[in-house]
Amino acid sequence: MLKRKLIKRAAFTAVSAGLAVSTLPATAADVTMNLGFGAPMESIYGDLSTIVKAKVEEYTGGRVEVKIRCCNQISSEDEGFKAMQLGTVDAFIITANNISPHWPLMDVTVLPYIFQNTAHLERVVDGPVGDLMKKGLQAATSVHLLTFGPALYRDFYNSKRAINTMADMKGLKVRTPKNEVMLATFEAFGAEPIPLAWSDTPTALQTGTVDGGDNGTSFIKDMKFYEFEPHLVILEHFVAMAPLFASDHFMKRLDGELREQVQKAATDAGMEFRQLVRNETEEVRNWLATEGGMARTDPDRADFIKAAQTVQQAFAEKRGAEFVKLVNAIQAAAE
Asked: How far apart are the first and last CA of the chain?
């Protein structure tokens, strides 16, 4: 499974970094950073936090100790952001779409093909636009976004036919969550989206009530959808991220040098883990296309991206001028 391999590799990274720390004089940490998240330790969040801990402790020479608090120990994901605003939580990993109640501009990341490919995503989150988002969030909420974390793409699958161009999507009955952006996206692609609760989805796929759907790559394998959905389509039309945030209260406990070291550690951890996730995702896709027996296609995305941009602009206009400006900046970074 994807998450099990990531855990092993994250653990190896942590041990390697720990060796570097162990060569330093044994001194008590100046600052403790309690890093929380809502998921189990054996999860994507646990893997990211393991790498963050190793790098923070290495880069600060042990002056900052990171204590990982999984499983809602210090807060729930729903309450974690507010707790950081209040200064009662040091740091928390939160799914990007759950930030929008606190900072609506984060919803830009849920738009279809807002990141046209991995290179575009990296230019945004690691470049000037990402810095602009970090500064905007901090100015509006006081919370610091330390790293955008891994990029988790959704892959498409169906029982009817291979998808080589957007025209091949025409008329397919596609299960979607009850989400207006997702519904509009598949309509723009030419499919017939059918909103279904997740609990009804596996049966609907098996009985042919719907022809296909989209999920995270490892989830397609875990749910054994390959047993009755023979076509795997690498669209990467939606991406989910899990950023690491820190409270202003915590960041102000750090002197200038420590703050820079913690920020660099988080940035490097995010980049490293993003690549790990990317590599593992490709391994799962290859498994689905070989042992899983699915026929894989990697269609030309030009028409999909063009259709998605109409959805981006329509949604952005509903959200106001500031949202439109951010969408335009992200689109410009693709050029």
From this structure: 36
Residue 33 per-residue DSSP state: E
15 and 63 fall within a common domain: yes
In a domain, 277, yes or no: yes
- Asked if residue 168 is part of any domain, the answer here is yes
- 85: closest CA among 73, 95, 75? 75
Q: Which two tokens stand for residue 281?
A: 């995702």
Tokens for 234, please give them: 């690498």
This prediction's pTM: 0.85
pLDDT score for 62: 97
Confidence category of residue 23, pLDDT binned at 50, 70, 90: very low
The domain in which residue 268 lies consists of 2-102+143-150+242-284
* CA distances to 59, 115, 174, 285 from 213, in Å: 43, 20, 5, 16
Query: What number is the average pLDDT over the span 131-151?
Result: 97
**Angle at CA of residue 182, ends 97 and 175, nearest 5°:** 120
